[in-house]
Amino acid sequence: MQHILVATDNQAAAKAISRSFSTQVQLSVVRHPDELKPALGKRTHDVIFADIAWLDPSPERSFESIRTALRALWVIAPNLEVIILTPQENIREAVKSVRAGADNYLTYPVSPEEAAYVLESLRESHMMQTELEYLRSADSGSSLAPLQQVASPVMQAVFDKVRRVAQANTTVLLQGETGTGKGVLAKLIHAQSNRASGPFMGVHCGAIPETLVESELFGHEKGAFTGASRRKAGRFEVAAKGTIFLDEVGTISQPTQVRLLQVLQDKVFQRVGGVADIPMEARIIAASNVDLEDMVRRGEFRADLLFRLNVFPIRVPSLRDRREDIPLLAEMFLQRLRQQHMKKIDGIHPEVLEAFSRYPWPGNIRELENLLERAYILETSHMLSPDNFPPDLFVGGAPLANVSLDLSLPLSEVRDRAKEHAQRRYIEEMLAACRGRVTLTAERAGISTRQLRKLLGRYGIDKSHYKPAKSGTKNASL
After folding, report:
1. In the structure, what pLDDT confidence band is assigned to residue 52 with cuts at 50, 70 and 90?
2. CATH code of the domain in which 373 resides
3. Residues 410 and 435 in one domain
4. Are 26 and 88 part of one and the same domain?
5. Which residues pair with 2 in a beta bridge?
6. Residues 6+ apart with CB under 8 A from 438
7. What are the E-state strand segments in 299-366?
8. What was the pLDDT predicted at 146?
């Protein structure tokens, strides 16, 4: 509940301000200047409507004298927001007051509509400023691709759940290994919901120091703790009408779990150091890379909080459980790398794709993306070759592209093997550069198409692996 103090001897103005607010506001009125400061000292007020003559009785009312008067109020109530009341003929003094630090002003006679409008605009201004600060500090560079079909049945089932729950305001719990794309799914749910025009606020709970978690989530009042130099709205407040994504929710401490449980139950919260109730209007999506039920059994996570979060659970599969999507994901990342690096690489060596299909992917999609980015930077040809991927990726150690020197063989046989390897590698690279077109590849290689086809058969090279994906084929968004 917001607490407002009206300080004026203009009874019509006091009545107009009193009529402008709902029952969610507690309003007090003082009618003599001597009552002003004692009233501020008795209880915490959020806003004051104050007659300028009460604040600064000096005849000139200079900028400095008004600023001194305002500072005297803030000594008593550091978080107080000040709206000046002044006659129309003293409008210049009202402007001076705003320049000196007051939040806004009203002129007599005051109407209830004007008072309500000024207070609402003040609240929206603070919300917009806080949201802008978060957006500036957030990583908002990546655009969200539309939900598209993938090849694996397990991921199709996940997307079906996303479509079903998106339009509801239900709390969602995403559980899966690190790097499986839980954050992308949270953004997809938000983008397909009726809250898409509102903010999406991501909070990595494990990355915030324990002493600041409650401040980040719920905000704080000025002076609530050392370093709190001004009031700050928390993520729940900024995300009103939107979505708040609590990533790695299993890392929060027991005291913060209690606070979060209260918010989910009561649908209200208070800033740290504050007493006013703020409605909880954000939709919550939580994520964890650990089994929260196991944490409950070990006494590390509250069972009642898990019940509140686990209203609509979605299990996100690991990459090794959706291997059908690896080529689609690789092509998606490759396209993104082409745009970022402005470097022409047309595809991925079939041997690399084969290794991808066998690798266990402990880091999941994130590991795949990182491996491709590293190889893309190192690659000097038109195809991502095995040379630029870690040997661990390939069964049996180093990739085939590395020619081993067997000292038990005569030099002539080593030379023949190296020649064969170089010839095969040349054809693969040229075929990739020509995007799988046999005639163009033969022309650039200086051989006939018949010779090229014989070599393709000899080395077991499939030209279809080097052709670009046709538009309209299935693509992946995760």
Report:
1. very high
2. 1.10.8.60
3. yes
4. yes
5. 25
6. 431, 449, 452, 453, 456, 463
7. 312-315, 347-348
8. 36
* CA distance linking residue 189 with residue 61, whole number of Å: 55
- Indicate whether 392 and 308 sit together in one domain: no
Q: Quick one: tokens of 325? A: 């999507």
- C-alpha–C-alpha distance, residues 277 and 330, integer Å: 48
Distance from C-alpha of 237 to C-alpha of 111, rounded to nearest angstrom? 29
Q: Which CATH number covers residue 60?
A: 3.40.50.2300
Q: Are residues 392 and 451 in the same domain?
A: yes
Rg over CA atoms, the chain = 33
* C-alpha to C-alpha distance for 97 and 67, rounded to whole angstroms: 7
The residue out of 71, 103, 121 marking a domain boundary is 121
- The per-residue pLDDT for range 334-377, each reduced to its tens digit, is 888 888 876 778 789 888 888 898 888 888 998 999 999 999 98
Q: Indicate the burial class of 171 (C-beta count within 10 angstroms; 0-12, 13-18, 19 or more).
A: middle
Do residues 302 and 328 both lie within one domain?
no
Task: Provide the whole-model pTM.
Answer: 0.57
Residues 6+ apart with CB under 8 A from 54: 7, 8, 33, 36
Q: Tell me the HSE value of 176 on the side-chain side, using a 13 A CA sphere.
A: 26
Residues 298 and 361 in one domain: no
Is 403 contained in some domain? yes
Domain that holds residue 344: 323-466
Per-residue pLDDT tens digits for 172-209: 999 999 889 999 999 999 988 999 888 898 888 888 88
CATH of the domain at 213: 3.40.50.300
Looking at the structure, tell me whether residues 367 and 285 fall in a common domain.
no
Q: Specify whether the CB–CB gap between 256 and 211 falls below 8 A.
A: no
460/456 Cα distance (integer angstroms):
6
Q: pLDDT tens digits, residue range 124-180? A: 666 555 444 444 444 443 444 434 568 889 998 999 999 899 988 999 999 999 889
Question: 140 in a domain, yes or no?
Answer: no
57 and 22 assigned to the same domain: yes
Domain closes at, from 259, 286, 317: 317
Shortest CA distance to 138 belongs to which of 192, 187, 193? 187
Mean pLDDT computed over 299-315: 95
Q: Which helix (H) or strand (E) holds 154?
A: helix 153-166
Whether residue 302 is contained in a domain is answered as: yes
Percent of the chain with pLDDT over 90: 24
Residue 462, Cβ neighbours under 10 Å: how many? Answer: 11
Q: 129 lies in a domain?
A: no
* Residue carrying structure tokens 């004026």: 8
Q: Does 401 score more than 50 pLDDT? A: no
The tokens describing 449, both together, are: 């198409």
Number of domains in the chain: 3
Contacts 24+ apart (CB under 8 A), 28-33: 28/3, 28/4, 29/5, 30/5, 30/6, 33/7, 33/57
Q: Measure the CA–CA gap between 399 and 375, rounded to whole angstroms.
A: 14
